[in-house]
From TrEMBL:
Pfam families: GST_C (PF00043), GST_N_3 (PF13417). Residues 1-79 form the GST N-terminal domain. Keywords: Transferase. This is Glutathione S-transferase family protein Sll1545.
Amino acid sequence: MIELHMFPMSHYNEKARWALDYKGIPHTRIPYMPGPHAGKIKKLSGQTQTPVIRFEDGDVLAGSTDIVLELEKRFPQPTLLPADEGAQKQALDLVEKFDGDIAVKERRSLFVHLIDEPDYLCSMFAQGQTPAKRFIYRRMLPLVKGMMRRSMDIHPDALEEGNALTRQAFDYVAAQTRDTGYLVGDQFTIADLTAAAILAPSVQLDYADMMKPKPVAPSIQAYLDQFADHPGAQWVRTMYEQHRAPLRVAA
Ligand SMILES: N[C@@H](CCC(=O)N[C@@H](CS)C(=O)NCC(=O)O)C(=O)O
């Protein structure tokens, strides 16, 4: 069976989960906790970032977009790429746009809050782990606070910068999808999947894989509230309702 080695909740990981589910590809998900994941993921893929996929033929691939495009090659239907070459380029350019600064700075804004909410951080990222591992992870979090700040470059302006960029991204999807409901042409493509998955951490969704654990920590709730009524956030919810398979195929 195909294996997806992943972090719960993470937006890049969500892209790979969504593509697998959209194409109805049976797979097993192997959840890791950020931090303790590094050794195993490095051994598997030669680098430490998730998602990583291992195909049944033994091929291993990292990088959310490379994974989605490889799935597209191996499982062409239903397609996530527009047939027209120009539209395809437009969709891939948008994938790059959302995967870049938007994804990194949005994540950083959330972590500005999460770093001071270790219980909540643990409830988000230790999903699927044994109680013993969750316990150790929770104990470890205050000790790695400084490391998290440095690795994500959390500085005094990070929150404002991330919030502004995320708002611009919501403005963009709201304006761009006004006519057809989609970012490129009039069909769901890799561009919509990417933009909706990347913005999902900033939207309170009912979808299990990206739903914030309840009760939501007050600082995270305040973060979500600032975008709750934005038409771009509504577009993300619509993409989930219309194009995210209600039952995932994973074992
Ligand atoms: N460009 C990569 C980014 C992946 C990424 O940043 N993954 C984060 C989780 S959101 C990660 O695994 N961080 C841990 C690490 O870098 O060791 C992709 O599209 O997959």
